[in-house]
């Protein structure tokens, strides 16, 4: 993202995929990056344990539908990244091999990242990896009790659309990831680029990170 | 969706995929259907010309990033559907084989559908298939001039988040598909189901179909 000889270095984005990831957690922010990549230098790695397509279908809900996305790299062959996005979803629960792999990868790669972005219960995976220790972060409000019970080492922020602490950006549930990523794009690429993208997707942003009508609904 | 012997018949959803579809056009509504399917009977067919993964990468933008989704059926082997969702995106332009196949499929299947849903410039594919003739519909506001120029047989509605005419539900650009599908779920499954889903994705709905701040921005 820095400029060298007039040509900006790429933004190298990675996304953690596992069975039962929440589709909008990934594809809300991704659509913003897809549009950004049409005018700016962006590379993408879709990361998982294997190169087999990864379904959004929850592992514990046999009747549910899902969509399958093709990874580009395994965790063990991941390229260097600037930004890693960790989605949430029903698949974050438990300790399947895929989830254990994802948590190990997050723990190992975090020191090399410029930015870690979590959406929804993706913050639970980051918390289990230990990389949120001592940091402020937020998460999905419906799953608040379960996620915040994972560790006492995180300063969980209840009323927040998203939270920034150092290089960690964490959002509340699902669609909040869109607001987080547009705020991130505004910070890194400027307000005009963020506005062009939100207008392209005809999205009325929540620009106040403390805007959170869902905090009350969760009854905490 | 009707009840027979106490067990509700499935909602059979299909989605048209082609290279350069807009990811949020598909995955915004799909995440709502994914959540719906965890408590209601829903089946899904992801349809394309072949069973090869379909990328969101625009065919005309070599440097852009994209994500690839795995179809479940070809157009020629599509199962019977209740609802077909047609996304938009940069890939809708032109007359590639994939787009010609999609338009033929939309034309052929429309008489058997209970509902046709278009998001963003997906309405352009439906218009080219002739199935919007004589109907009111809307589309993406940034591409308004190009889409409405495709045919004079459609009553294009400029200021609209979404439009319903008979069994055709058409939305404005990208994120408007989420509001459309939540309104559709409210109509078919009731307001409580729609509210549960919008709360699950922490999405503040636009419930007024005429709400459209992007109509002015397009300068028409």
Automatic annotation (TrEMBL), chains A, B:
It holds the Pfam family DJ-1_PfpI. Residues 12-186 form the DJ-1/PfpI domain. This is DJ-1/PfpI domain-containing protein.
């Amino acid at each position: 993202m820095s400029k060298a000889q007039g040509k900006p270095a790429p933004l190298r984005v990675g996304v953690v995929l596992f069975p039962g990831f929440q589709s909008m957690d990934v594809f809300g922010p991704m659509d913003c990056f897809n549009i950004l990549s049409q005018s700016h230098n962006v590379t993408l790695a879709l990361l998982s344990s294997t190169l087999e397509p990864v379904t959004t279908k929850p592992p514990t809900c046999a009747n549910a539908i899902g969509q399958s996305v093709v990874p580009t790299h395994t965790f063990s062959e991941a390229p260097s990244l600037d930004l890693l996005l960790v989605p949430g979803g029903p698949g974050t629960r438990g300790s399947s091999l895929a989830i254990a792999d994802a948590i190990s990868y997050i723990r190992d790669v975090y020191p090399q990242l410029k930015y870690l972005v979590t959406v929804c219960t993706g913050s639970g995976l980051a918390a289990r990896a230990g990389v949120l220790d001592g940091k402020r972060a937020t998460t999905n409000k419906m799953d608040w009790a379960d996620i915040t019970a994972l560790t006492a080492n995180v300063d969980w922020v209840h009323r927040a659309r998203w939270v920034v602490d150092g290089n960690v950006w964490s959002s509340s549930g699902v669609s909040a990831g869109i607001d987080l990523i547009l705020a991130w794009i505004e910070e890194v690429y400027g307000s005009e680029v963020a506005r062009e993208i939100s207008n392209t997707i005809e999205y009325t942003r929540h620009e106040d990170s403390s805007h959170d009508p869902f905090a009350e609904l969760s009854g905490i």
